Every structure is written in C-alpha cells, then in structure tokens.
C-alpha cells in the first residue's frame, strides 16, 4: 500500500538509485521484486512463499566490501596484473567512427587509434556524444537515459563529539519526512580501517532525482545543510575535524519506465556495429556487483569473438 511505498520502497530506491519510485521501472531496477509481484501476485505474498528458497537480491543487501584505500586500487591492481597492455589515462574520446571494419577513435589530445573491438564503460551521455557520427540512433538511445545529481560529503569527528554509537550501517530517510538529505552511512563502522582509533566517519548523501535543486547550490552551503541534517539524529556536539565532499550534476543513471526498450535499442545497435560492447552501469544495474557481472559477461563474449576470427 501507500505506507509501504513511502516508508519501505522509497527509502530503498533513494539508497540505491537516489531515484523516484514513481518514475523508475521496477523490472529494470529490482527484477527480483518484479518477479515476485508477477509470479505470486504481490511482494509480501512472494516473500512468504519463497522464504525457504534461495534467490537473488531483491534490493540492497549482503556484506559491503571495498578496497583498502578506495576503489582506485582495483585499477592499480589490474594494471599490475595485466601484461602487454597499454594504458592511456586522462585523454577523453571525442569521436568514434567505423572505418573498414575497425573502430577509428579520435581523442581530446588529437590522438587517433584503430581497434577491432570496442568496450564502452563510460556514462551514457558521454558515449552519446562520441557515437553521433557513427550511429545517430545509438547516440539518441544513449542520450535518453536520465541522470540524477548527487552531493556526497564525509565528516570526520572525534568520537566524544558524537552521541550516537553508530553501531550499524547507517540510515535512509523517507521523502515524506521532507529532509534535505537522503541519508547517512556510518563509514567508520562499515570499514573500520578508514578511521583512526577514537574517531568516527560519517558519509552524508544529498540530491537525487527528487532534489535537482542541489545543482544550483554552492558546495559550502550544501556542506552546512548536510551537517544540519545529521545533527539531531546523531547528536553532534562538536565541529567535524575532517570534511571532504564531491558534487556530481549527473551522477546516477535512472532506469525510468521504458528502460527495457532503450536497452533493446542499444543492444540491436551494438550487434549491428559488430564487436561493440556496452558495459558500465547504464543498462543492466548500477551497483558494483552489477557492473562486475556485466564485465565478466563482456569479457567472455569478447574472447569468444576473438577466437572465432582467429
């Protein structure tokens, strides 16, 4: 019912997509929930009937994992373990064309390359721009994927200045509460190695599809809003010792209703182009787990295609 949507589904959607549940496609965002609805005629009916059966995650769950020092270490680890691979960093792609069955790429630094296979894992709006000359329909389909803004700020406190014990994951706030933040993560509880002994680290999330107003706000003002947003809940008594923030005007892709049609259009265009693979978080899921699964599937298909043409 309405209360379940407002106090259960809406916070979950905010926590994963920073989205509006009334706009998003249930089947594209949470396929397991959609399957329960379709198979059993309702979410709770399905949960009761499947409580002893194993299935994939319906929403956020499991154990959070990350690299010590941040996800950047996933790239540094990869670069150390790959041989005969050339990495070019800091040079954006401006244009992609198909010339004599090869992908001809022009970069922002005026470099040009030719490749037999092309894997795209950047935001859809970026890919839309560099595919314009090669395939206008593919470009248009990629450009149809809307992005929500996000502002994330990390606060580091002395543990004496935070009344709440922060023994848990964090919290999400239902939109009906009319708060300026979406929620907060207790980073020092989730990843203890990220805060020194006697310190607490909190990550506050703002923005999302329901709060596009953050785009026009100065970052310093958003930091104050974020601090006020956790003050009463966590019982903040002192000033933060550390403040680190990031703002993305186009942060998280939103799988609106009709997303499956966009996916099909992009898949058809990729197949027609030949040896073109679309990865990242723009089609099949926005989480790290989803992106990892998609990457393995692309790698498998890529190897199969390479072997088939040897």
SSE blueprint:
Layout: H1 2-17, H2 26-29, H3 31-40, H4 43-49, H5 72-81, E1 93-99, E2 102-107, E3 112-115, E4 118-120, H6 124-130, H7 136-143, E5 146-158, E6 170-172, E7 183-185, H8 187-190, E8 199-207, H9 219-234, E9 242-254, H10 259-273, E10 276-278, H11 288-308
Parallel strand pairs: 4-10
Antiparallel strand pairs: 1-2, 2-3, 5-8, 5-9, 6-7, 7-8
Helix pairs in contact: 3-4, 6-7, 7-10
Strand content: 15-25%
The low-confidence parts are: 54-60
What about the largest sheet? 5 strands, antiparallel
Q: How many DSSP helices?
A: 11
Radius of gyration: 22 Å
Give the N-to-C terminal Cα separation: 57 Å
CATH C-level of the largest domain: Alpha Beta
**Would you tell me the structural class of the helices and strands?**
alpha+beta
- Strand arrangement, major sheet: 6-7-8-5-9
Give the CA-based shape: globular
Descriptive overview:
By secondary structure, the protein is of the alpha+beta class. It has three domains: 2-49, protoporphyrinogen ix oxidase, domain 3, CATH 1.10.3110; 89-145 and 255-308, 3-Layer(bba) Sandwich (FAD/NAD(P)-binding domain); 148-252, Polyamine Oxidase, Chain A, domain 2 (Alpha-Beta Complex), CATH 3.90.660.20. The protein is built from eleven helices and ten strands. It has helices at 2-17, 26-29, 31-40, 43-49, 72-81, 124-130, 136-143, 187-190, 219-234, 259-273, 288-308; strands at residues 93-99, 102-107, 112-115, 118-120, 146-158, 170-172, 183-185, 199-207, 242-254, 276-278. The strands form three sheets. It has a five-stranded antiparallel beta sheet with strand order 6-7-8-5-9, with helices on both faces. The chain starts with a helix and ends with a helix. The relative contact order is 0.15. Mean pLDDT is 90; it is low at 54-60.
